[in-house]
Amino acid sequence: MRVLVTGGTGFIGSHTVVELINAGHEAVIVDNLYNSDIHVLDRIEKITGVRPEFFETDILDFEGLEKVFQAHEYDAIIHFAGYKAVGESVAKPLVYYENNISGSLNLYHLAAKYNVKRIVFSSSATVYGDDFEAPFKEEYGYGTTTNPYGTTKLFNERILTDLAFADKELSAVLLRYFNPIGAHKSGLIGEVPNGIPNNLLPYIAKVANGQLPYLSVFGDDYDTVDGTGVRDYIHVVDLARAHVKALDYAMNHTGAEVINIGTGKGYSVLQVLHAYEKACGKEIPYKIVARRPGDIATCYADPSKAKKLLGFETQYDIEEMCEDGYRFSSQNPDGIK
Ligand code: NAD
Ligand code: UD1
């Protein structure tokens, strides 16, 4: 299959491109390099022996994006491109709605015009909001999103569901990711946050590398195993493999389908911190501080639908997630350049 991958030089996109190539597919990447580096292509080539075709194009540029559709016929699209910083989305909602909604609409217009009938979309567990109790099940539908980033994910799910209702040949697989972490075993690709990280694992990695002094643990008074927040961390290579399975599913089904992609297990902040300490062989200093506004106590998936529909199960545990994440961040402390 030839697959158009928007955001394919990013964290999850690059790992997915590797798994697509490993599975015998051809990946064509569109990315404007807003949050990734061109040298990711060298790394993908080093891992797979294949250099994917790359278009440095902003999906907001309709004419530029149309050239990508004119260059080839595509069997499917995996749509990763978007902004993802929750706090920034609260401060700059228009920027988020513009990029994550208008950009997606351009893509969906062109998919329709050029007859691409299979779309896999990067959604997030954030669409459950704080209305439900873990484990989160797809049948819960949507909660009340707590920030514009989350709302852009919810809107994309709705838009694709409406498109699949109107076009009975369309298949839209809406993957709700839980917390992707870790990196490829080669240590060549991984997560490169811009500036001071907002998310837990990139922050811990910088403390382990000596680039930040200590981790602030946001609250130890939640109703959880040790009072700190519990999340469903999933190895990014497992998540990437889920996309290959989702494409296989989309080949044989039509309509819109929401599917959780998580492990079904939750780990607290302190449990993750200790797993990372074991992986890097160093103590990670931390301080307990106030809760972060908008955080919930516990978030983990019911992963049974992914198993049933996609035949997908995770392979890697929290130890390997931390080992692989540490290998990448210690070998690339300043990112991929
Ligand atoms: P990332 O920032 O590493 O990758 C996104 C890529 O999209 C980047 O390479 C960026 O340059 C590109 N991009 C952004 N706007 C673009 C535009 N207008 N035109 C072209 N390219 C553009 O992020 P990621 O962690 O790989 O996430 C991929 C997708 O998964 C995003 O949609 C994100 O919201 C979603 N998601 C991520 C997580 C997570 O924890 N990382 C969780 C749930 C959902
Ligand atoms: C966040 C987003 C979510 C997004 C996901 C991946 C919020 C409310 N949610 O999820 O929409 O899909 O990132 O980008 O922002 N923590 C600390 N110290 C830190 C950082 C985090 O204690 O410096 C704790 C948090 O309180 C939480 C856990 O670590 O309990 C995980 O946090 P994080 O990695 O930011 O992910 P989420 O909040 O689950």
Low-confidence stretches: none
Distinct small molecules: nicotinamide-adenine-dinucleotide, uridine-diphosphate-N-acetylglucosamine
Ends apart, CA distance between termini: 30 Å
Strand order, main sheet: write it out. Answer: 3-2-1-4-5-6-11
Mean pLDDT metric? 97
Q: Indicate the overall shape.
A: globular
Tell me the fraction of residues in β-strands, as a range.
Answer: 15-25%
Structural class: alpha/beta
Number of helices: 11
What percent of residues adopt helix (DSSP H or I)? Answer: 40-55%
What summary fits the major beta sheet? 7 strands, parallel
Number of strands: 14
Structural overview:
The chain is globular. It is 40% helix and 18% strand. With 337 residues, the chain is an alpha/beta fold. Nicotinamide-adenine-dinucleotide binds next to helix 1, helix 5, strand 5 and strand 7. The site of uridine-diphosphate-N-acetylglucosamine has 21 residues, from helix 7 and strand 8.
Concise summary:
Helices cover 40% and strands 18% of the residues. The chain is an alpha/beta fold.
Topology:
Layout: E1 2-6, H1 11-22, E2 26-31, H2 40-48, E3 53-56, H3 62-71, E4 76-79, H4 86-91, H5 93-113, E5 118-124, H6 148-166, E6 171-177, E7 179-181, H7 200-208, E8 215-218, E9 230-231, E10 233-235, H8 236-252, E11 255-261, E12 267-268, H9 269-280, E13 286-289, E14 298-299, H10 304-310, H11 318-331
Parallel strand pairs: 1-2, 1-4, 2-3, 4-5, 5-6, 6-11, 7-10, 8-13, 9-14
Antiparallel strand pairs: 9-12
Helix pairs in contact: 1-2, 1-8, 3-5, 5-6, 7-9, 7-11, 9-11
This protein binds nicotinamide-adenine-dinucleotide (NAD) and uridine-diphosphate-N-acetylglucosamine.
